[in-house]
Amino acid sequence: MSDNKLTTQSYWETYYKAKHTDKAHIVNVCSFYASFWDTLISEKNSGKTLIEIGGYPGRYLAYLASEYGVKPTCLDYNSNISQIEDAFKTMEVKDYEIIRADFTKHQSEQLYDYVVSNGFIEHFENYDEILDLHCKYLKPGGKLLIMIPNKRYLRKIYGYLCDYENLKIHNLKCMKLSVFNKFANRNKLKVNTLQYYGGFPFAVHQKLNFFQKVIHKGMRFIFKGRVNNYLIKHPSKYLSATIIGVFEKPES
């Protein structure tokens, strides 16, 4: 497969350089998506297997293993696995596997009951090809959860004004529900849920000049609190932060 990545390994090693293994932080971030985890994993403590594609720094895997009793595997090409190990230690998860490999080249030795992919496919030009590769990890009857940011519409304008470096490493072409419906049809997957979710994400990833600070504070004032609480209950493709889909592979 040709290299169609919009990011580099060094980018991600720098991006997650800070610690992300505080227990309260892990639970707060991951439990926000509780209803989707429940759709993905219908039975707790079943001992079923779960792999996260691009799983660094491990907080989602550690949370799911702790909360749902799955056996977690992290597939990521990051050279530093200490944060992944720390996340599992924080959530008191002892039985896990870490595979250090490039997803686009790795040949899986097993199939999994659950596959999770969070903030991954949008960093590739060939996102359809990357999506299809996820299915090679999924057992018949297994489920796949894919979550990506929604940076179109107002978030795109906001990104150009206040978060451009981050915006340009994302492929906005994949941020449509139709992309995932076509993916499901192409791979004969059942769509259990597919929707926009969350409030407007006003956080940025760069230092701001005076003009940008004014815009950022204005957006924070508008969306923090009631407006974002409303959007969580009533998602909008124009404003909500995320696209989330849960798909199921037929038994045969």
Q: Summary?
A:
The chain has 252 residues and is of the alpha/beta class. It has helices at residues 9-15, 23-31, 34-40, 59-68, 82-90, 127-134, 154-162, 164-167, 177-186, 210-223, 226-233; strands at 49-53, 71-76, 97-100, 112-118, 138-149, 190-197, 242-248. The relative contact order is 0.14.
Topology:
Elements: H1 9-15, H2 23-31, H3 34-40, E1 49-53, H4 59-68, E2 71-76, H5 82-90, E3 97-100, E4 112-118, H6 127-134, E5 138-149, H7 154-162, H8 164-167, H9 177-186, E6 190-197, H10 210-223, H11 226-233, E7 242-248
Parallel strand pairs: 1-2, 1-4, 2-3, 4-5
Antiparallel strand pairs: 5-7, 6-7
Helix pairs in contact: 2-4, 4-5
Protein name: Class I SAM-dependent methyltransferase
Family: Belongs to the CFA/CMAS family.
Pfam family, one: Methyltransf_23
